[in-house]
Design brief:
The mean pLDDT is 94. Helix content is 33%, strand content 24%. The chain has 400 residues and is of the alpha/beta class. The longest helix has 17 residues. It has two domains: 173 residues, Flavin prenyltransferase-like (Rossmann fold), CATH 3.40.50; 206 residues, Rossmann fold (3-Layer(aba) Sandwich), CATH 3.40.50.10300. Bound molecules: ligand PMT. Ligand PMT binds next to α9, α11 and β16.
Length: 400
C-alpha cells in the first residue's frame, strides 16, 4: 500500500467527471490513505454526499456555514489535517478562483486556507481548457507550485473530442504516489532501455527472450517520480508506460542502439535494463522461409553491438548503469560485466527471480562492493536503485 498513513483531503467540484471521484476515493483507500471529502454545491448535483460518506467512512463537508461541524471552522480545519489537498475534478471556475485567491464558496475558501500542497485534476470542455483565461490561470497555479495533473485528451461528455478529460482515477492515484516520493533526480535527464529485442529470421519469425519490460518500466516510473525527465527506448512489450515518460518503441538491437545514440547527448544518466539479444541472424529473409523436406536451414548469427558499452565509451558519457541477468554465479558474472563495460554500477538478478514477474531480487555492484536488496516488488527495488544512482551523481565516490 503506497499511501499508508497519508491523509488526503479530496475536493470534488461540479462536472460530469464527479462520478469518477467515487472510484478515486475507493482507490485511495485501497492504497492505505485516509480520505476526507468536501463537495462544492455544483458537485452535489452530479453525485450525492452519501456516496462519498459511505466510501470514505467520514462525514462529507458541503456547507461552509455548517456551524455544527468543528466549531463552525470545518472549512479551515479540513485541509489543515491533511498531507495533501487534491481537487478532482477541478472545474474551470475552481481553477480561476484558486489562481486569483478568491474565497467566496466552500472549495475556494478551504483551498485558500490550506496548509498543505495542492494538486488539481482539471476536467472541462476542451474549449474551456484552451481558452486564454484558463491557460493564464493554469500558468499562475503552476507558478504557485500547484501540481496540475493532466488533463487527458479524448471523447468528452458533451460529444466533442479534445483535451480536457479528467485523468482516470488510477492515473491520479499514480500521480499522488509520485507526489510523496523524494525528488532525488530533480532536473536530471535519464535515458534508458527496457524489454527484450526481437531479431528477425524472416517476416514472421525471430530470436527474442522472455523479458516482459516490467523491471524497466518500474525503473522509468521511479526515475520520473524522483523528478527526472525520462526517455525510454523500449523493445517489443505489451505493457503501457507510466505517465510522463517519452517512449520510443523499437524492435531489434540495431534499432535500439540507433534510438539510444540519437538521444544520448545531454543525458545525465543511462540505464540499460533491456535484455538485448547478443546475436542476430546474419541475413533476415524478406520472404517466409518454407519447409523444403531437405535438411533444416542453418541460421548464421552475427554479434550485435553492445549499446551500454558504446554509451560508456563516449567522450563525455552519462552515468552508466547496467543490469545483469544470470542463471548462476551472479556476483562473479555481474562484476565481470561491470568491469568489461567500464560502468560504475550494475544491478544483478537471477533469471528465476527477475524475468517476467512482478517481483525481483536485486544485488547492486559498484566500487564499494556489493549490496543485496531484499526481495520486493519491482517498483520498490527501482526506487532503491534510483536512490543509489542519485547518490552516485551527487558524489561519484560516495560510500553507501
Ligand atoms: O523485463 P522483465 O521481465 O521485468 O525482466 C527484467 C530483466 C531480468 C530483463 C532485467 O532485470 C535484466 O536483468 N536485464 C538485463 C538482462 C541481461 O542479462 O543483459 P546482459 O547480461 O545481456 O547485458 C548486460 C547489460 O548490457 C544490460 O544492461 C544490457 O541492457 C546491456 N546490453 C547487453 C547487450 C547488448 N548488445 N547491448 C546492451 O546494452
Amino acid at each position: 500500500m503506497e499511501l499508508e498513513g497519508k491523509r488526503v483531503a479530496l475536493g470534488v467540484t461540479g462536472g460530469i467527471a464527479a462520478y469518477k471521484a467515487a472510484e478515486l476515493t475507493r482507490l485511495l483507500l485501497g492504497q492505505g490513505a485516509a480520505v476526507r471529502v468536501a463537495m462544492s454545491e455544483a458537485a452535489t448535483h452530479f453525485v450525492t454526499p452519501t456516496t462519498f460518506q459511505a466510501l470514505s467512512g467520514n462525514p462529507v463537508l458541503t456547507d461552509p456555514w455548517d456551524a455544527s461541524a468543528a466549531g463552525g471552522m470545518a472549512h479551515i480545519r479540513f485541509s489543515r489535517e491533511a498531507d495533501v489537498l487534491l481537487i478532482a475534478p477541478a472545474s474551470a471556475n475552481f481553477l480561476a478562483k484558486a489562481a486569483n485567491g478568491i474565497a467566496d464558496d466552500l472549495m475556494s475558501t478551504l483551498t485558500l486556507a490550506r496548509d498543505c500542497p495542492l494538486l488539481v485534476a482539471p476536467a472541462m470542455n476542451h474549449r474551456m481548457w484552451n481558452s486564454p483565461a484558463t491557460r493564464r490561470n493554469v500558468a499562475t497555479l503552476t507558478g504557485d507550485a500547484v501540481g496540475v495533473l493532466g488533463p487527458a485528451s479524448g471523447g468528452q461528455a458533451c460529444g466533442e473530442t479534445g483535451e480536457g478529460r479528467m485523468l482516470e482515477p488510477a492515473q491520479i492515484v499514480e500521480e499522488l504516489i509520485a507526489h510523496f516520493q523524494p525528488r532525488r533526480l530533480a532536473g536530471k535527464r535519464v535515458l534508458m532501455t527496457a524489454g527484450p529485442t526481437f531479431e528477425a529470421i524472416d517476416p514472421v519469425r525471430g530470436l527474442t527472450n522472455l523479458s516482459s519490460g516490467r523491471m524497466g518500466l518500474a525503473v522509468a516510473r521511479a526515475a520520473r517520480e524522483a523528478g527526472a525527465e525520462v526517455t525510454l527506448v523500449c523493445g517489443p512489450v505489451s505493457l503501457p508506460s507510466p505517465r510522463g515518460i517519452a517512449r520510443i518503441d523499437v524492435t531489434s538491437a540495431l534499432e535500439m542502439r540507433a534510438a539510444v545514440m540519437r538521444h544520448v547527448a545531454g543525458q545525465d544518466v543511462f540505464i540499460g535494463v533491456a535484455a538485448v539479444a547478443d546475436y542476430r541472424p546474419r541475413i533476415a529473409s524478406d520472404q517466409k522461409i518454407k519447409k523444403t523436406g531437405h535438411p533444416p536451414p542453418v541460421i548464421e548469427l552475427v554479434e550485435n553491438p553492445d549499446i551500454l558499452a558504446e554509451v560508456a565509451a563516449l567522450p563525455d558519457p552519462p552515468l552508466c548503469v547496467g543490469f545483469a541477468a544470470e542463471t548462476r554465479n551472479l556476483a562473479e558474472y555481474a562484476e565481470k560485466k561491470r568491469r568489461a563495460k567500464k560502468i560504475p554500477l550494475i544491478a544483478g538478478n537471477l533469471i528465476g527471480d527477475g524475468f517476467g514477474g512482478e517481483t525481483n531480487t536485486l544485488t547492486l555492484f559498484d566500487d564499494d562492493g556489493r549490496h543485496a536488496l531484499e526481495p520486493a516488488p519491482k517498483l520498490a527495488l527501482a526506487r532503491q536503485l534510483v536512490a543509489r544512482i542519485a547518490a552516485l551523481l551527487e558524489n561519484p565516490h560516495a560510500a553507501r
